[in-house]
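User: Hey, my collaborator sent me this sequence without any context and asked if I could get a structure. I don't really work with proteins. Can you help?
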Amino acid sequence: MNRREFMKNAALSLCALSIPVVGRKAFGADSDPIVLEKKEIAGIPKFEIPKTQLAIPQTSYCKRVVFVRYGGGVRRQETISPKTESPFFYHGLLKEGTLFSNVWIDRESITGHAQGSLYTMTGRFDNYKGQPFDVEYTPLYPTFAEYVHKGLKTTSTDCIMINNSDNMSTEFFGFSEHKDYGLAHAPILLSEWALMVRRLERNLQKATGSNRNKLLQKQKELLQQLYRAEIPSDPKTTELIDRLDKEHGERPPLGDELVAELAVRALRELKPRYLQVHLQDSDYVHWGPGQLYRRGVRRMDTALRRIWETIQSNNELRDETALVVVPDHGRNMHGSRRIPYQHHDTEDPGSHEIFAFFAGPGIPRGVRIDQSLPQIDATATMGALLGVATPYVHGKVMEGVIS
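Assistant: No problem. I've predicted the 3D structure and written it out in structure-token form, which is a compact way to encode the shape of the chain:
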């Protein structure tokens, strides 16, 4: 059985059937890129696409990469400055690696969660538009997970994406529909949504009568959120979900606490070659006071600490794993609102100002580099660390990571 057939059968075992989505529009490989109105944003560069293709790495510097999207959007002030709300990150982790403090998102690119994530996932500032609850996002070009799976010829559980399930329009955007990559090289999805689907499958096996009908209706509603024809699955990740549910009495933690728990278990039990972790809790400030942002950043910091400590507590992981931390985007700094960082408008320079951090074997420790660099250089740098070709990436390798 080839991998495509296996994934289809495994997805069916999770009830991941192809169900039409009503009233929502998929935006991805079959759509034309959107040309945005060019706007001048003070202090934010315009990215110029390189004329030469990124060189194929000749060697690798580590066996594994854990990429943490430190998102929901964060500002530098609350993360990499003395006023930090990320005490572990600022006072502890920064000593263990190299910080690029002046990273930016192209001034003509949208600073939304989907878009900011896709820039790093694909290594390109392609233009995606749409309101977050109207569009299901599909990458226009291969994601880094696809490059890893194809380039390293890995098994299905060697590439895993852990999502927050806070925004279903980005729940299944881990792989493109590119003719040379796509589903056959997609990462496994672990998330609250995946837990709920699996839990319903288990409960349906023993349900009868009206209770079974209620569960079937819940299952239908969940599966209507699946905007891809298929998603990959694997018995090992299904078993991981079952154990987590059993230990928590089908009441697992929520938000970034759940993301951290899934990441820790995936690292310990599966040791993937590429683990992509999406943190999101800082974004709750959209709906309320500023303390929601600060609390969210602190929860993300706790999740980051758990991930780092898991890597460091295992000899195999510690000696072979690089940790990469990059926000999806920043947040407003210069707005007139009472809470200026409540949103992340594309027109605000603060939404384009982020950072990137690398730690692991061979990466210089306790180094800060203030050079102005685009966000998508992080993708090329991850490719260099793993020795993986990333032919459609527009970024370049950051000098100072590989010594």
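In plain terms: The two ends are 43 Å apart (CA to CA). You can pass these tokens on to your collaborator as they are.
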